[in-house]
Amino acid sequence: MSQLLPSALEGRRNDVRVVDSLAAKGFPGYVSGLQRMGTVSDVYGWTQVHSHINLAPDEAYALTDKRSPHALYELMLMSAGTTHRPGLHDHSPRFAGALGVIAAAFAEHCRTYELSPVVSWSYDPATVDRESIQGEKRFHAHLVGRTLRERAEVAERAEPVGGLSAVRARRIVEEASVLGALISADVVDRHALRVLQPVPALSTPTATATAQFLLPQGWQSLADPQFYDDMVYIHRKLRAVYDEVMRACTTGTSGMWRRPGIKAFNPEDIDVPLRAATRAALAHYLRALRPEILSGPVERSRTAHVYPLANLAYAVTITEQDGKVYLHVRTNVFSDLGGAGISIMDGVIVKTKKGVGDLRVDEIAARSAFQVDFLHMLHHHPMAARAIFPRL
Q: What CA–CA distance (Å, rounded) separates 287 from 262?
């Protein structure tokens, strides 16, 4: 494939600071692999469940410990109802309210440990033939506390993504993520949002690699009931754009080792309200796109460079930067790295590499104590009723 972005945008992308990669230790003896959690019993079989709260007859969440850590200090909130729901928008406002309260409380808990909180999740339910940014198709949010040591390492090792190989650069800051930031700025009406405040596209390095939104009340913004409305609104906008681009510019369908091809198209026929510069960048991207159609699994780095994901895919990351809290939406077309595989730390895009060495006994004990302390803190939190008894 030739250069997928116009030269000016490619230059902005190349300037984004990244770290490839930040190591995360694993549990001794654990062999990482993909286990689908099709049933509630599977959730218990493949994770350590700390709590399981029912919200409705077919909707619930579980707070769990990951078997394959992305960091020393972390928890996972997983959709754990009988109905399989991949996206936050597929859940009720009660579920989103519980997530918001728990995430806000988790950030508060991190402060007592001198950690920097990062909350993330991914949406990619359709990709099942290759590595996906949402390997487990049940919605799950990663709640991670980054240490001062990790932040110092990231600050020391950060480099422009343009210095990486083309394969590594696309996995960590892919071209579609920059294009997604521009498209989001055009289609998301700031006046329709109730909590999130858009940051102008390309105004910062992170607003180049993601669609970036300020949370004006910090982590407490997540506990606002209208936060859910904003996330549903953004999802619907992304869904509409994706579907319209596929209608106007492609032929064929997605399936097992099958993807649509780009057909001859007129950019003006894409029925999306885009600025002229965004429409031109989108047309440039699509006309330069020459995805390979693979007949089966190949080396992961090649798959994630040339063979697209099956449908709309994006990751959400909530993190702190310069004393403020931001939400980032990162669109994916090729990259297999979702909200946990890519973190954002102090404005740097950070790839996580799991399973580098084994956790020591004292580290496992510290991880467990962090999780137990959080559960005790959450149980006594002033907003606990909204997470533990959300139907009241």
A: 7
